[in-house]
Specification:
Layout lengths: L1 H5 L4 H32 L4 H4 L7 H4 L2 H10 L19 H36 L4 H25 L7 H7 L4 H8 L2 H13 L4 H26 L1
Helix pairs in contact: 2-6, 2-7, 6-7, 6-8, 6-11, 7-11
C-alpha cells in the first residue's frame, strides 16, 4: 500500500487512504476480533470474555506488527482471540470452532457493505444538494478505502493456513491427523506468508479476489440507488 501511495497520486488520495487505514486498524479491526469473542461466548466458551477480549476497545486487540502490515500491504491481523473448543456447547466441536472463526471475516464483509451503503447515500446527497465537491470527494475516498480494506482483510483471513481464521474452518473439514500435522509448522508457514506479502508476491492474488468480491458486493448494494436515479 505504501509503495502505491508514494509512487504517485493526488495528495487527497494519499491522505484519505492513510486516514481510512488508521480508521480500520483502530475501529473496525477490533470489531473483527469482538465478533470472534462474541460467537465463542454465545456458544458457551467464556475464555475470550474472561481474557478481556469481549470488548471493542482497540487496546485489547491490536497487534503492533499486524497493524503495521495493514499500512504496508493492505492486509494484516490482530491478537488471536483465545477459544477453548471443548467448552463450546455445539454437538460438533469442530463445527463450533469453524463458526467462531467465520465470524471475523463475515464482520469485515458486513462493515464493507455498510461503508458502500454510506458511500452511495452520500453520493445521492451530493447530487441533490449543495454539498461541496471537495467534501463529497473526501467522503467518497474514505468510504471506498475503508470498504476495500475490509474486503481484503476478509479474504486474507479466510486463507486456510495457520494461524488465520481459514485454518480453523479447514479444521472442521479435514481429519484431525492432517490438521495437527499442518499445525506443527504454524510458525514456519506464517513467516513464509509474511515474506510473500512483503515482497508483493502474495498480494496480487489477494488483490484480484478482493476486487472481484468488492465489485460484486458494491454492484448489489448500489443497484437500488441506480434504479432510483
Amino acid at each position: 500500500m505504501l509503495r502505491a501511495l508514494f509512487s504517485g497520486g493526488e495528495p487527497i488520495v494519499i491522505i484519505m487512504q492513510l486516514l481510512s487505514t488508521a480508521f480500520v486498524v483502530f475501529c473496525t479491526l477490533p470489531v473483527h476480533e469482538y465478533a470472534h469473542a462474541l460467537i465463542a461466548t454465545k456458544l458457551g466458551d467464556q475464555t475470550a470474555r474472561l481474557s478481556g477480549r469481549l470488548t471493542l476497545s482497540p487496546l485489547a486487540h491490536i497487534d503492533i506488527f499486524g497493524a503495521i502490515m495493514i499500512f504496508i500491504s493492505g492486509v494484516g491481523y490482530a491478537k488471536p482471540v483465545p477459544v477453548n473448543m471443548y467448552n463450546l456447547k455445539t454437538k460438533n466441536k469442530k463445527l463450533g470452532m469453524a463458526l467462531v472463526a467465520l465470524a471475523g471475516p463475515v464482520s469485515n464483509l458486513i462493515m464493507a457493505a455498510v461503508f458502500m451503503l454510506l458511500n452511495n447515500i452520500c453520493s445521492v446527497i451530493y447530487v441533490h444538494t449543495a454539498m461541496p465537491e471537495l467534501l463529497a470527494t473526501i467522503i467518497a475516498y474514505f468510504f471506498y478505502f475503508a470498504a476495500s480494506i475490509n474486503v481484503s482483510l476478509a479474504v486474507f483471513n479466510l486463507i486456510p493456513v495457520p494461524p488465520l481464521d481459514g485454518s480453523r474452518i479447514l479444521f472442521a473439514l479435514i481429519p484431525d491427523k492432517y490438521y495437527y500435522t499442518i499445525m506443527k509448522y504454524e510458525r514456519q508457514i506464517m513467516i513464509v506468508m509474511l515474506v510473500l506479502l512483503l515482497t508483493g508476491i502474495f498480494s496480487t492474488p489477494i488483490s484480484l479476489l478482493s476486487d472481484l468480491i468488492y465489485n460484486g458486493l458494491n454492484t448489489l448494494i448500489s443497484l437500488p440507488f441506480r434504479l432510483i436515479g
